[in-house]
User: Fold these one by one.
Assistant:
Number 1:
Amino acid sequence: VQLQASGGGLVQAGGSLRLSCAASGSIFRINDMGWYRQAPGKQRESVATVTSGGITNYADSVKGRFTISRDNAKSTLYLQMHGLKLEYTAVYFCYLVASGQYVYWGQGTLVTVSS
């Protein structure tokens, strides 16, 4: 199983980006999917998650700015980000849980928010 994250880049504060994460390989059943991020010098933190049933959860710091979604037919996860702040600069990692127990991670995509 491989996860390919894309969509990161350099954006000005207040701008928008859309991250994508495409899963490939033999996956019997995908359960939760989500995004973490790791800023320089900080621990990795959860940003948003979405269950197989479409229930979403967000970190308080991104509520109202980020929207997580998934296309089950394409095994693809998205993160639409609006109103980006300087403190959102980080490497964003996607993950998925398969068959209720296996966790797979993407390679990360860098989001840099400039003033």
Number 2:
Amino acid sequence: VQLQASGGGLVQAGGSLRLSCAASGPTPNSYTMGWFRQAPGKEREFVAAVSWYDGPTYYADSAKGRFTISKDRAKNTANLQMNSLKPEDTAIYYCAVVRRLTSDSDYYTQSHRYDYWGQGTLVTVSS
């Protein structure tokens, strides 16, 4: 599976961006796609995840209420709609796929669980 992230850019605080992750190759229902981010000098952190079948979504506390993850199976794409952006959201955002379904939500927050990664897209939020 190859992943291509896009949609990053520069936005003012309070603004919105929509990130997309296009997957090429087979994406069975047993896959889950996640978004992570890494700010300068910080560790990569989980943002959100969505199972490729009609399953639940998962969010980091920092994303709840502001970000929405969704999938378009016809286009093999997962999107991350980010609203009410804050300067602390500034980071490189990565999409990733893990070949596993589990009811353990903590599993999806762990970056080392993921099998495939996209190249990242930069989001900069100015104050």
Number 3:
Amino acid sequence: QVQVVESGGGLVQAGGSLRLSCTASGLRFDDHAMGWFRQAPGKEREGVSCVDWIGSNEHYIESVKGRFTISRDNAKNTLYLQMNSLKPEDTAMYYCAAHNGPYCGTTWSRAYEYSGWGQGTQVTVSS
């Protein structure tokens, strides 16, 4: 059974930074692309970023390009999301999940491509 645990969220002022981590178990980590999603109150869950199994191909939604960086350490079964220049609109619960395949593909932002969702970590950005 795939399990993921997110950490690193918190309260930060606009312009600040946070680094989220996600540790996965119950799967062969380097067989899977990994993704970050977020969900703000009253909004649908949206895909934020995805990285292929080897960490060489990254995808981002437009609103975070240039501010967020996704990375992974396959030796540690861990996924990261470095978030810089945070904005109040980044406030959300952030989730990581294992993609069903090794590559993100063109549908990387669709939740149905993933399994093994964690409980999430809250990110709150104050203005």
Number 4:
Amino acid sequence: QVQVVESGGGSVQTGGSLRLTCSASGLSFDEYAMTWFRQAPGKEREGVSCISASSAFLYYADALKDRFTISRDNAKKRVYLQMNSLKPEDTAMYYCAAYGYNDCSGPWWSEHGSSHWGQGTQVTVSS
């Protein structure tokens, strides 16, 4: 059974940092690209970042690439999202998922390409 669990969320002030962790089990982790998404209240889920199975390819939403960094540790079956200079508009539930193409090719930013979603971890940024 595939299980994906996000952790590391919390409440921070504007300008603060958080590091999210996604732990996966029950799948051949090193064969999957992994994605991070977020969903703010009343908004659609949006793609944040994608990392290929080998970490060779990294992709970010344009508005986030200067502040967010994705990484992974295949030995530990974990994906990380380092978020710096956080803003109130970053407030959202953050989700991790496995992507259908191991090199992040295709529209990784669309939630329809990812599966095995976790329950999410809440990030709240106050001004």
